[in-house]
Amino acid sequence: MAGNILTMIAVWTALSLAVLAIACSTDAPPIPLPTPTSVATLSSIATTREPPTPDAVQPIPDTPTPTPPTVTPTATSVAVTVQPSPEAAQSSDGRMATPDIRRKEDRAILVLDTATANREETLVTIGVRYDGRDLGTAAPTPGVVWSPDGTRFAYTTGDGVSIKVGSLDGEEISVLDTGTEWHPMYQWPAWSPDGKLLAAMNVAWCEVGMKVSSVEIIDALNGGSVDRHGPYDFWQADGTLQGPRRLSTPNNISWSRDGEKLLVSWDKAVVINVKSGKPRVVSSRPVLAEWAPTSDAVYYFEIETGEENKRNRTLGTFYIRRLEADKPELLLSADEVSDTGLAAEWGPIPGVISLSPSGSTLAVSGGGDEDGNSELHLFEIPEGSSAVSVKDATRYPVDGRLVALDWAPDESGIAGLVADESGVRMDILNISTNEWSVVTTSGIEVNQVQFLGKVISWSR
Asked: How many CA atoms lie within 13 A of 200 on its CB side?
C-alpha cells in the first residue's frame, strides 16, 4: 500500500509540473489541475478556468488517509470558569467585548463539508445551528468566515478571482474581482474588527522569486480595493517558470483587536501595519501563532519536524513576541510542551490555537495518544495583560484529533472539527459541564482537512 501511495504521488507530481510548465509559459489562463492531498493548497488558490457557479465547486481529491503514529496520553478533565462577555464594544484595556446582539438559537456555525454536484463530490461550507439543525450550503467553497456582527460572511470563489460577501438568506455581492487567475486570492479572507474591511492574500504562484504574495484591503460594505501592500515573502512558494516547488497552508490570517495590524502566520509569521503596509517579522520559520488580547504581542509555538516521520510536524517551544521587542520571551520549552501532551507526530497539522472573544482565555490543542485522541488546553490570561498562565492550564480530553476550533460568542463552549478512524465530525464542548456533544458529521476526510485553511467559524 505504501509503495502504491508513493507511486501515485510521484506520478501526480510529474504531471503537475508538466502542466504548470505549459501554463506558466503561455498567456492562456492556468490549466486546471487535480488536487491530491499532498498539494491541496492548489485547490484553494486557482484550479478552474471558468468563474464559479453554485455547481462549479472544488473537486475532492481521491487520496489515501495517513495513519497516525503512536504517542503517550496525558489527560485530565476539570471545570473552568470563563469571564462573562462585557457589555461595551471595547474595554479600557483594549480587549474586544462580545455583546449578545443575537439570540443563541439564531447563531450558526459555518463548517467545511461535502456535497455532490454533477455526479462529483465537492467541497462546500454548510451552516449549522448550535443544536445541530442543518441550514444547508452557505457557499460552494471552503474558507468562509463570519463578519464580527454575525450577519454576513465572506469567502473567495473557487478560482480565486473574486471575494464575495453573503448571508444565509441567499443574498450575495462581489466586493472584489481581480479579473485574472494568474494572481488568485487565497481562500481565507479576514474581517476587520468593525466589519467594514476585509483583508485577503494574493498569491502569484507562477512568478519567479520569493516575494510573490500581496495583501489586498477591501471595502466590505461597498466593494472595491482600498489599498494593496507587498509583495511579501511570508509564503515561500519558490515560484519558477515550471511552477511552485513548495506548497503550504497558513494557520492564521487575522486582524489585531485595535484594527491597525494584520497577522499572517504562514511559512513565516509576519505582522503588517494595515495603513502603511510595513511588515514586522515575528518569526522567520513556520510557527503556530495567535494574537495577544492587547494587540501589541503575538503568541506562538515553533513547529518542529517529526523525528519518526519527517513529513509530520509537532509543536515545539512556546513564546510570546512583543512587537516592540527584539527577541521573543520564553513561555514553555520544547520539553515542557512535550510534557504537557501538546506535542505529537501524526501529520501536517501540529496543533490549533485560538484566543477567546473577550481575550480572557487561550485555547490550544495538540498531542494525542496511541488511540488517536488529543487534548484541548485552556490557558487563562489576566485582565489587562498579555501574560499567559502556562503552568495551570485546564485540560479537556478529545475523542479524536482536534484539527480546527472556534469559540462560542459567549465563551460558554468551543466548536471543534474532530477526526478519528470513523471520519470527521463537528463537536461542541460545554465548558461548564466538561461534556462534548456531536453536532454534525462531515463528508470531508482528515487528509483533505489538514491542507486547507479556515474550516470552521461561529457566528457572533
From this structure: 36
The b-or-e profile of 246-271 (16+ CB within 10 A means b, else e) is ebbbbbbbbbbbebebbbbbbbbbbb
Cα 81 from Cα 29, distance rounded (Å): 54
Asked if residues 165 and 173 have their Cβ atoms less than 8 Å apart, the reply is: yes
Averaged pLDDT, 363-383 = 86
Instruction: Compute the distance between CA of residue 370 and CA of residue 401 in angstroms, rounded to an integer.
Output: 11
**The three cell numbers locating residue 393:** 492550564
pLDDT, averaged across the chain: 77
Q: Residues 385, 390, 392, CA angle at the centre, nearest 5°?
A: 110
Q: DSSP label at 96?
A: B
The Cα 272–Cα 215 span in angstroms is 9
Q: Give yes or no for a cis peptide into 231 (omega within 30° of 0).
A: yes
List, for residues 8-34, the tens digit of each pLDDT value.
333 333 333 333 333 444 443 333 322
Q: How confident is the model at residue 310 (pLDDT cuts 50, 70, 90)?
A: low
- More confident: 453 or 156: 156
Q: Tell me if 247 sits within 8 A of 41, measured CB to CB.
A: yes
Residues 6+ apart with CB under 8 A from 27: none
